[in-house]
Amino acid sequence: MAAPLGAAPSSNVLAGRVIVIDPGHGGDDPGTVGCHGIVEKDVAMEVSRRVAGVFRQAGARVVLTRDGDREPAGPGGSGGERIEAHDLARRVELANKCGAHLFLSIHLNHFSEPDEYGAQVFYQTGSRESRKLAEAIQAELNKNLVDSGRQALAGDFYVCRNSRMPAVIVEVGFLSHEQESRQLTAPAYQERAARAILQGVVNYFQGDKGEVKQHG
Hints:
By secondary structure, this protein is an alpha/beta fold. The protein has a single domain, classed as 3-Layer(aba) Sandwich (Aminopeptidase), CATH 3.40.630.40. 39% of the residues lie in helices and 16% in strands. The chain contains 6 helices and 6 strands. Strands 2-1-3-6-4-5 form a 6-stranded mixed β-sheet, sandwiched between helices. The radius of gyration is 16 Å and the shape is globular. It starts with 17 loop residues before the first strand and ends in a 9-residue tail after the last helix. Mean pLDDT is 88; it is low at 73-83 and 210-216.
């Protein structure tokens, strides 16, 4: 039975695991701007810090790709696309070099239709383990935030494609949705999201008896 979200999981399945948490965007790259002027990079950082906290409580070693309002790539370069590519490469390089078991990139969603809502998890097309991880996290987000009927989706994403470990992008909710955008800035809601992500990861590892995963 899954541990309640009010407490850290009783299993030691995360002890010694290296988990890279990637707060999306940062620095000159704000990400999307939603209702009430809420900026994605700021909410992604807040949620990521909470995710980092619950994973550390569960015994994992956590590495953040950024801690504050800055891009891992630092200054330099000419042209937004080149800077963005460098930024993403630095995030992936950090995860690969530290021998991470998982890569979790935290983002917020936005859509032109303001009635879209709900968290959604994405994974790299063709990666069996990343799909299992994404589905495990999606199930917990649907259970513990709001069940919008969303399912984990495959796609082609730089950070997922180039990571040597299972990697997913977690879109915690829609900043373009009036009510959800307010919830996403609330500490209690962010904590629920963090604990749902944690439980999804625990379920993923427990589903395969805690074996160390390889990308693919």
